[in-house]
Each structure stands twice: as C-alpha cells, then as structure tokens.
Amino acid sequence: MAKLFLVRHGQSQWNLENRFTGWQNIDITALGQLEAQKAGKALAKESIDIAFTSTLIRAQHTLQIILDEIGKPDMPIVINAALNERSYGNLEGLNKDETAVKYGVEQVHIWRRSFDVAPPGGESLKDTYDRVIPYFEHDIKPELEVGKNILIVAHGNSLRALIMYLEHLSPAQILEREIATGDPITYQWDQIIH
C-alpha cells in the first residue's frame, strides 16, 4: 500500500524576518536546516521511491537534507513550479506587520486567509489549488496508484491546497489548517477516497 509524505520546507530567512516570501527564492536558515534533519529522522524508516518539489531553493534544500538524512541522496527528484508557494505578488519582500499598518489589519488578513481573494498582483489560495491539483492528478497520483511511496517537499500554501483536495475540506476548513515547517504528514493512499 503506497504512502504519500508531505513536508513543508524548513524555516526560511524571510519566515524568520516575518516577510511575505511567495515566489522569491529565499533559502532556509540554520533552524530550517535542523528542521529538515528532524524531518529526515522522522522518515528514516520509511521506504520512499520518488520525491517531488518546487522550483524554489528553500524546498529543494530541505529535500536534499532529508534525502541525505535517510541515506538516499540520489533518489529521483521531480522539480515543478506547480508546487511553488502561492505568489504574494506586490507584497513579496514586505514585512507582514508593516504591511498591516499600511493597509490595515483586516485587509491583510483577507489577503492572507481568504480562499479566493488574491493580494495585489498575486494568487489566492484558490489560484494555487487550481495549479497544484491538476499537476498532482496528472504527475503524482499515477505514481501512487502503481504502489510507489512519494515524498513531496513544498510550501505552506501549495501543501494546504493539496491537503484540501486529499481530505475533502471546505474553504473555511482549510484556512484553519496550519502546517508546521519540517514536520512530515503521512497519508496511506488506499485510505484516501478520491
């Protein structure tokens, strides 16, 4: 029975600085590296056949640390922008607290936490869902259906979109879901109704 493992990348420099990161290519911090090692230790006894990740260095670096930790540094890796973090558009690089002062706490909350309202020049969670799920169905799901164990290392919102799909959650339910950095989530593929 195939397993699907999801891991959010370790803490990035802009997570630490409380900045909107989105598609900016920011690497992980020393703490992020430790989180990736912890994820690797948690997955060490699992059999993983193939890994998928985004085009962003924080996810790729986290994945490589995990693969080193589990002793499979040469595992096949598929990199695709469909797994990238949600784009925050014009907010990328801005401090979240300063942005709340400038635009108002309520407006920033709507941009960050509504399902279908995008920040200026960016993507809503619905937009992210609309690129993640077709990619999952076309490229990842067939691997699970032939019995391969899959590791996806990606981002808070791309993983949130995938979890919404896998668990049949409503927009309100998924917006309440927090995904910790470096903490693997495991699904038994045969127990997921698709």
Written overview of the protein:
This protein is α/β, with parallel strands linked by helices. The chain has one domain (3-191): Rossmann fold (3-Layer(aba) Sandwich). The protein has helices at residues 13-16, 30-43, 57-69, 96-103, 105-113, 125-145, 156-167, 171-175; strands spanning 3-8, 50-53, 77-79, 150-154, 185-188. A five-stranded mixed sheet has the order 3-2-4-1-5. α3 links the parallel β2 (50-53) and β3. α4 (96-103) crosses α5 and α6 (125-145) packs across α7 (156-167). The chain is globular. The protein starts with a strand and ends in a 6-residue tail after the last strand. Pfam families: His_Phos_1. It catalyses: (2R)-2-phosphoglycerate = (2R)-3-phosphoglycerate. GO terms for molecular function: phosphoglycerate mutase activity. Its EC number is 5.4.2.11. Belongs to the phosphoglycerate mutase family. BPG-dependent PGAM subfamily.
Write the layout of secondary structure elements.
Blueprint: E1 3-8, H1 13-16, H2 30-43, E2 50-53, H3 57-69, E3 77-79, H4 96-103, H5 105-113, H6 125-145, E4 150-154, H7 156-167, H8 171-175, E5 185-188
Parallel strand pairs: 1-4, 2-3, 2-4
Antiparallel strand pairs: 1-5
Helix pairs in contact: 2-3, 4-5, 6-7
Supply the key terms.
single chain, 194 residues, alpha/beta, Rossmann fold, 5-stranded mixed sheet, 5 strands, 44% helix, globular, PG/BPGM_mutase_AS, EC 5.4.2.11
CATH superfamily: Phosphoglycerate mutase-like
CATH class: Alpha Beta
Number of domains: 1
Q: What is the overall pLDDT average? A: 95
**Spatial strand order of the main sheet:** 3-2-4-1-5
The general outline is globular
Ranges where pLDDT stays below 50 over 5 or more residues in a row are none
